């Protein structure tokens, strides 16, 4: 066999291998992105509802992706592709981290207000109020998040 023929054959095989590898990567990547999106929407659904944030989880995920894309294109001219990729990842995960912080902060507030709210509820019941009226007193007297939780009970 001639050397040029072997070189063309080898180049063709390498090219086909690269195309196939890219195809496998993209097909697996699209499945991974779909799974990540589904997981983010499922977990974001309860977190957003608990915090009384009126954004759908799919919209929240789309905003996170948009922030990542904006960060990538804003940092690419400044620091190159590596810095842009890091900035995009940080921008994508920052809203989820903030959401978790807000959730933990709300839980701490509920824990600190719960004892006082239950004490007021008990005193209201002792003074002769019915349970719905006692819960109304707690809703009127307390700031969020305790107000929101007892308003949910009242509803």
Q: Layout of SSEs?
A:
Blueprint: H1 3-50, H2 57-126, H3 131-141, H4 146-154
Helix pairs in contact: 1-2, 2-3, 3-4
Order of helices and strands: HHHH
Instruction: Supply the helix-strand structural class.
Output: mainly alpha
The count of strands amounts to: 0
Strand content: under 5%
Q: Uncertain spans, ≥5 residues at pLDDT below 50? A: none
Overall pLDDT score: 84
Distance between the termini: 85 Å
- Biggest sheet architecture: none
What is the 3D shape?
elongated
Helix percentage? over 70%
The number of distinct helices, counting runs of at least 4 residues, comes to: 4
Gyration radius from CA atoms, angstroms: 27 Å
Task: Spell out the key features of this protein.
single chain; about 0% strand; about 160 residues; mainly alpha
Describe this structure in words.
- This protein has 155 residues and is an all-alpha fold.
- 89% of the residues lie in helices and 0% in strands.
- The chain contains four helices and no strands.
- The chain has helices at residues 3-50, 57-126, 131-141, 146-154.
- α1 (3-50) packs parallel to α2 (57-126).
């Amino acid at each position: 066999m001639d050397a040029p023929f072997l070189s063309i054959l080898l180049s063709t095989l390498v090219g086909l291998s690269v195309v196939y590898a890219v195809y496998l990567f993209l097909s697996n990547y699209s499945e991974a992105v779909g799974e990540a999106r589904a997981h983010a929407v499922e977990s974001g659904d309860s977190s957003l509802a608990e915090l009384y944030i009126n954004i759908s989880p799919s919209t929240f995920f789309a905003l996170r992706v948009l922030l990542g894309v904006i960060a990538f294109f804003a940092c690419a001219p400044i620091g190159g592709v590596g810095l842009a990729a890091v900035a995009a990842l940080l921008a994508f995960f920052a809203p989820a981290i903030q959401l978790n912080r807000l959730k933990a902060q709300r839980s701490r507030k509920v824990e600190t207000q719960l004892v006082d709210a239950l004490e007021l509820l008990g005193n209201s019941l002792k003074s002769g109020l019915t349970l719905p009226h006692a819960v109304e007193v707690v809703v009127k007297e307390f700031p969020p998040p305790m107000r929101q939780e007892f308003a949910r009970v009242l509803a």
